[in-house]
Design goal:
Elements (H helix, E strand, L loop, with lengths): L1 H24 L2 E6 L5 E6 L1 H7 L14 H9 L4 H11 L4 H5 L7 H13 L3 E5 L6 E5 L7 H15 L5 H36 L1
Antiparallel strand pairs: 1-2, 3-4
Helix pairs in contact: 1-2, 7-8
Length: about 200
């Protein structure tokens, strides 16, 4: 009797893991139209990842006392700073806005990075007025990343012969410190406004 039960249990587990692997290997390919690109493919792994236990948020682990290493623990992937870039330079604030960026971030990665940035105190969620959507803005801690984004943008311009908006590039070359101050002030005001509205609505 015991051997029969063990056999049946083994068969059940085999069927369960086989089904999970099939689900992972046949994940949905969602084709989304993009204004700048004709089409892009976004892989949606959320359901399969949850079944197999892979839906863990990016963990921030301190590897050493080095300040450069500490910074890379936050920004050492190719997506986190692009989300902050979109907020600072492209006035993007919603999940849908971020998905429209030219780099084509996958929805599961975007969800993960937004959650990480919020939990680390760099972003704050707020309800978008008149719409059933959530927006994201930089916090007072988050605005301290603005000089990082600006310096990386200027380095990219110098090395890759690329450009930001022409007016912004010209302003940065003329008065970089002034532009950073202006952007910082603008985003602090935005944060305080949304924080005040969120407090009043709770």
């Amino acid at each position: 009797m015991c051997l029969k039960l063990l056999f049946l249990a083994g068969q059940y587990l085999h069927l369960l893991f086989t089904s999970a692997n099939i689900l992972l290997s046949t994940c949905i390919l969602q084709v989304q139209k993009d204004k700048m690109n004709n089409k892009r493919l976004t892989l949606h792994f959320q359901i399969a990842s949850k079944i197999l236990g892979y839906d863990h948020m990016k963990e921030i682990k301190k590897r050493s006392e080095c300040p450069v290493s500490f910074s890379l623990d936050f920004f050492g992937d190719k997506w986190t700073l692009l989300i902050i870039r979109d907020i600072v330079l492209h006035d993007k604030h919603t999940f849908g806005d971020f998905l429209q960026s030219a780099e084509g971030i996958a929805t599961n990665i975007l969800t993960d990075r937004l959650k990480m940035l919020e939990e680390q105190g760099l972003l704050m969620k707020y309800p978008v007025a008149g719409k059933a959507r959530i927006g994201y803005c930089l916090t007072e801690k988050g605005v301290t990343t603005i000089p990082i984004v600006i310096e990386m943008a200027l380095w990219g311009i110098s090395q890759n012969n690329s450009d930001l908006k022409k007016e912004l590039t010209a302003a940065l070359r003329k008065d970089k410190a002034g532009v950073i101050r202006q952007l910082t002030s603008q985003h602090i005001q935005l944060y305080r406004l949304h924080k005040s509205n969120t407090t009043l609505n709770t």
